[in-house]
Design a protein that fits this description.
With 528 residues, this protein is an alpha+beta fold. The protein folds into 3 domains: 12-83 and 287-374, Arc Repressor Mutant, subunit A (Orthogonal Bundle); 100-275, GAF domain (Beta-Lactamase); 379-519, Beta-Lactamase (2-Layer Sandwich). Helices cover 42% and strands 19% of the residues. The chain is built from 19 helices and 18 strands. Strands 6-5-4-9-8-7 form a 6-stranded antiparallel beta sheet. The N and C termini lie far apart (51 Å).
C-alpha cells in the first residue's frame, strides 16, 4: 500500500475492471457519495439512513462525516447529519467561474419586471438541465425549482434548447437513461413522468428551425415555459433563458405571442454582454493545504485528508479562474502537483470537472453537491446552530433580530434551562431604541454604537435585564441583523458582560457572517 492510501481502497486491478482510472482517489469518491445522498434527502439523514443510502460501512461513514464536519460542510447532532451553508462554496466556485449570474443577473431582473413573470437561466448537464439563476414572481402558483436542481432535458423548454447541441453519443445516453428510468425516479426535483415524451427529438429539431422552445405542462400540470438560447462569443450555447408562467395567465400561444419578442431582445442583450471585454478581479484562492495537514495532525485517522484535499480542488475555480491548468490548481490550493492531479482525475471521472486539453473546468454537476437543498436557507437557519453554541458557552440566552420599521423582530433564539432566564419568543417585536439589538441596527443614528461596534442596554426594556449586541453584516458590509446575549443583572455585572461575553458574542457573529456570505453569494437569503 502506498503512503497516504486509504486501507479500504480497492486494489488497482479491481478499479480497472470497473473502468475506473488507476489513480482514482477512493475516499473522495465516497465523500462525494455522502454529499449526494444528503442532497437527495433534502439535506438531512440519520447516520443509519446515510449508511443505507451510500452502502458504506459504519466506520467509513463516520470518518467521512468527521472530515466533512471539520470542513464545515456538514453539522452533526444527536440524531442527524445535516448539510451546512459552507458547502455552498463548491457551487459558488462553479457559478463564479461561469460568470453567468454575475454578468446576466440584471437582464434577468429587468425582463422579469417587464413581463411580470418568473425568468430563469439554465445550463445543460449531461442529458439534464440545471438552473443557475432565477427571478421569481411571488404568487400563489409560482416557480418552485431551486438553483442547482437537475431536471430531465425533455421535460423543460430550457433543456430542449440545450439539446440542439447534442451529438449522437449524447442522444444514445439519453435513450439509455430513458430506458433505464422511464419515470424519472433519478430526478428528485420533479414528479414522476406524466407521459413518455417520445416527440423530444422532433421538438429539438423545431428549436433548430425556429430558435425557441415551449414547455407545455411537461414538468407539472399548469406550468408552461418559453426558452431561447443565449450564445457565447464562440457560437456555443452559454445558457438558455426562459420565461415561466401558469395556464391561468397564459396558454402556449399567448406566451409565445406576447413574450417571445421581449425574451429574444433580452437574449440578444445578454449575448452582447458576454461578447464585451471582461476582466474580473480573480477570487481569492482557498489555499487550504496547510489547514488540511493541521487537521490531520489533530484528528489523526478520523480525518480523511485525501477527501478534504479533493474537495478543496473544486474551490480553486471561481471568478477570473474559469479554466485552470494542473499547475494553476496546485498553486491555488497549495497542494502538491501529484495530489492535485489525482484529485482532478477523480473529479473528471465523476463528472464534476471537464478536461479540455491541458486545462480543467468545473461542470454544472458541482451544483448537485448540496446547492439545491441549501439555496433557500434563511438567516434564521444559518444562525441557529451558532446561537445554540454561544448560549452553551456563556450560559445565557442569545437571539438574532432584524429591523422592522421602528421595532426589532426576533427571527431565531437559543434559550438556557435556568429557573430565571430571558424568555423572548421568535416573532416577538420590541421597540428598537429600547434594545441593544435595535441600537445596533440603528447604529447610523447612534454614533457611539457605530464607533464601539456593539450596544449595551441595562434595564431599559425591563428592570434587571441586561443585553449586549453586535451587528451582522452582508457581503457589502451593510448591517442586516444583530445578535445578542441577554442576562439578568443578578448574574453578571456590566464589566463582566463586556469582558467575558462580548468576545464570544463577536466570534459567534463572525461565524454567522461567514455562513451568510457564502450562502448569499448567488442565492437570496430571507430573514426567516
Amino acid at each position: 500500500m502506498s503512503v497516504g492510501q486509504d486501507p479500504t481502497d480497492p486494489p488497482a486491478a479491481e478499479r480497472a475492471e470497473h473502468g475506473e482510472p488507476d489513480e482514482l482517489v477512493a475516499p473522495l469518491v465516497r465523500g462525494v457519495a455522502v454529499l449526494r445522498a444528503l442532497t437527495d434527502a433534502e439535506g438531512s439523514l440519520a447516520p443509519s439512513e446515510l449508511r443505507r443510502a451510500t452502502g458504506l460501512a459504519r466506520a467509513t461513514v463516520d470518518r467521512l462525516v468527521t472530515t466533512l464536519d471539520r470542513m464545515g460542510y456538514v453539522r452533526v447532532d444527536d440524531r442527524a447529519v445535516v448539510l451546512a451553508p459552507p458547502l455552498m462554496a463548491l457551487g459558488n466556485a462553479y457559478l463564479a467561474a461561469t460568470g453567468l449570474p454575475d454578468r446576466l443577473a440584471r437582464y434577468v431582473r429587468a425582463l422579469a419586471d417587464e413581463v411580470d413573470e418568473s425568468v430563469s437561466l439554465a445550463v445543460g448537464d449531461g442529458d439534464g438541465v440545471r438552473f443557475v439563476h432565477q427571478v421569481t414572481r411571488r404568487r400563489a402558483m409560482s416557480l418552485t425549482f431551486r438553483i442547482g436542481d437537475l431536471l430531465p432535458a425533455e421535460r423543460t423548454a430550457a433543456g430542449t434548447v440545450t439539446a440542439i447541441e447534442w451529438d449522437e453519443q449524447a442522444w444514445q445516453r439519453w435513450r439509455a437513461r430513458r430506458a433505464a428510468d422511464p419515470h424519472d425516479r433519478g430526478f428528485p426535483a420533479v414528479a414522476a413522468r406524466p407521459d413518455d415524451n417520445l416527440d423530444f427529438p422532433q421538438r429539438t429539431a423545431l428549436v433548430r428551425e425556429h430558435g425557441w422552445a415551449i414547455d407545455d405542462q411537461l414538468i407539472e400540470p399548469g406550468l408552461i415555459a418559453l426558452a431561447v438560447p443565449v450564445r457565447a462569443p464562440d457560437g456555443r450555447i452559454a445558457c438558455a433563458a426562459s420565461v415561466v408562467s401558469h395556464t391561468s395567465r397564459h396558454d402556449t400561444d399567448s406566451l409565445r405571442a406576447d413574450l417571445l419578442p421581449a425574451l429574444r431582445a433580452t437574449a440578444s442583450a445578454m449575448e452582447a454582454e458576454l461578447a464585451a471585454p471582461h476582466h474580473p478581479e480573480p477570487d481569492e484562492a482557498s489555499g487550504l493545504a496547510t489547514w488540511t495537514g493541521a487537521s490531520k495532525q489533530e484528528l489523526g485517522r478520523d480525518f480523511v485528508e485525501s477527501l478534504a484535499r479533493g474537495l478543496t480542488v473544486l474551490t480553486a475555480f471561481g471568478q477570473g479562474r474559469a479554466a485552470l491548468t494542473l499547475t494553476a490548481v496546485a498553486e491555488a490550493t497549495g497542494l502538491a502537483r501529484a495530489t492535485a492531479r489525482r484529485a482532478l482525475i477523480t473529479l473528471t471521472h465523476l463528472g464534476y470537472v471537464a478536461a479540455e486539453g491541458r486545462v480543467f473546468r468545473p461542470t454544472p454537476k458541482v451544483l448537485g453537491l448540496g446547492f439545491p437543498a441549501l439555496s433557500r436557507t434563511t438567516l434564521a437557519r444559518i444562525a441557529n446552530p451558532h446561537l445554540t453554541a454561544l448560549s452553551e458557552q456563556v450560559g445565557d440566552s442569545s437571539a438574532i433580530a432584524v429591523l422592522d420599521e421602528d421595532h426589532v423582530h426576533y427571527i431565531a433564539r437559543a434559550a438556557t434551562s435556568r429557573i430565571m432566564s430571558v424568555e423572548i419568543a421568535v416573532g416577538t417585536r420590541s421597540p428598537a431604541t429600547a434594545t441593544a439589538l435595535g441600537r445596533v441596527l440603528l447604529a447610523d443614528r447612534v454614533p457611539e454604537v457605530a464607533d464601539a461596534g456593539y450596544a449595551l442596554v441595562d434595564g431599559e426594556l425591563e428592570a434587571g435585564l441586561r443585553s449586549v449586541a453586535v451587528p451582522i453584516r452582508d457581503r457589502a458590509g451593510k448591517v442586516v441583523a444583530a445578535v445578542n446575549v441577554a442576562t439578568h443583572s443578578g448574574r453578571r455585572e456590566v464589566a463582566e458582560l463586556l469582558a467575558e461575553v462580548l468576545p464570544r458574542l463577536r466570534a459567534a457573529a463572525a461565524r454567522i457572517e461567514h455562513d451568510l456570505h457564502v450562502t448569499a453569494r448567488f442565492a437570496p437569503v430571507p430573514p426567516g
